[in-house]
Amino acid sequence: MGSVSLNVPAPRRGGGRRISCHCTPSLLNLLMFLALLSTNALALLAFFSSSSSSSSSPAASAATAAASTISDHVAAIAREIDTSSSSHLPHRADGLPPELLLFLSPHALPLGRDARTGLTHMPASVAHSCFRSPATLSLLAAFMSYDPHAACPRNATLQQHRLLSKACEPLPRRRCLSGGPRAALPASNMGVDGRRWVRPRHDYEFLLDDVLRLGATRIRIGLDVAGGAANFAARMRDRGVTVVTTVLDNAGKPMNEFVAARGLFPLLLSPAHRFPFYDGVFDLVHVGTNALDEGGAPSMGNSGMEEALEFFMFDVDRVLRVGGLLWIDSYLCQSEERRQLVVNLIKRFGYKKLKWMVGEKAGTGSAKTALYLSALLQKPARD
Q: What is the pLDDT of residues 117-141, one digit of tens each?
């Protein structure tokens, strides 16, 4: 085999001669391999030294501690659900329908035991609040009693209404065939008050056109909470605004079918539960009297509790975009204490007051004064 000659010129200032090295190809390959190996070794050493130093930093330690805390919380919640479920199911499991057991049974984790939480199965979180009451669980069992792949029972409306009144969200009937409308419904705007939101009836009522003019940008899409027959959505449609209405069938009345027959969008949802919408998607959220009923209305479950009202307001704030409008429309406060509670809760969000009106309800026949509260608020930008 031949040799390779490397000529390295000497510096001119020194006046020295050129340096010459005659190397065989195998020797040259060995030198290149040693150089590459030493370079990788130095890089690997630098990587591990930086990792060890960063792992010992306060920020990394805090992140590790936070992750560990979250894992502990998840494990605790899962154990609580599992304990709560098992405390009710063993003596009732034989009487529960198979479709309900399919939802309530714990499911094995696909990758086996979780190293952080130690869980091997994930208990079902659905219908967790229904376990606290045997009567509610029996009602849920009746709701879920059906033959798979056959027609769904026709008594769903009343059962759903009773379950929601107990703060128990009905499970979906996943494997039965739903029927059509129960009766022919008018495809008209029947039931819309000809004056409401268009002409003033009381000092504490706002008009649609005034509200739309106060918006910083054009109102395009809105949410009406507990909107009944969707009269508000019908009025807004006349002004080019699309409104989704949360509707509950009440006392056997097919409200969802009626709203759909009017060409409007009904959503079967209780205000006591989280809105199934992404953050900041609505330009306007309209909240009427029924959504904030403090007398324990079925639509709110435990609506008389301050926590329930707080959860509701936080979820409204979540789905409302920055600069969007929150319209609290003629909310009836049964006492000054309740009104002050709502006012203090609103102040916590830092909304800008565009319109604010309080009026007394006449003829209540009670020693306490009932007050109507109407407010138009604008969501601020937050850091």
A: 777 877 665 556 677 677 888 888 8
The 10 Å CB-count burial string (b at 16+, else e) for 183-221 is: eeeeeebeebeeebbeeeeeebbbebeebbeebeeebee
Distance CA 227, CA 233 (A): 8
- Number of domains composing the chain: 2
Per-residue pLDDT of 270-314, as tens digits, reads 766 788 899 999 999 999 876 766 544 444 444 456 777 888 889
**Distances in whole angstroms, Cα of residue 377 to Cα of each of 215, 283, 288, 353:** 10, 12, 14, 5
Top mean-pLDDT range of 42-56, 138-152, 177-191, 276-290: 276-290
CA-closest candidate to residue 304, choices 344, 329, 333: 333
Same-domain check for residues 237 and 375: yes
Point out which residues pair with 302 in neighbouring strands.
none
**Same domain? 168 vs 275:** no
**DSSP 8-state secondary structure symbol assigned to residue 366:** S
Question: Looking at the structure, do residues 223 and 169 belong to the same domain, yes or no?
Answer: no
Q: Which of 380, 330, 349, 355 is nearest to 213 (CA)?
A: 355
Q: Are residues 158 and 298 in the same domain?
A: no
CATH code (residue 273): 3.40.50.150
* Residue 342 domain flag: yes
Same domain, residue pair 255 and 363: yes
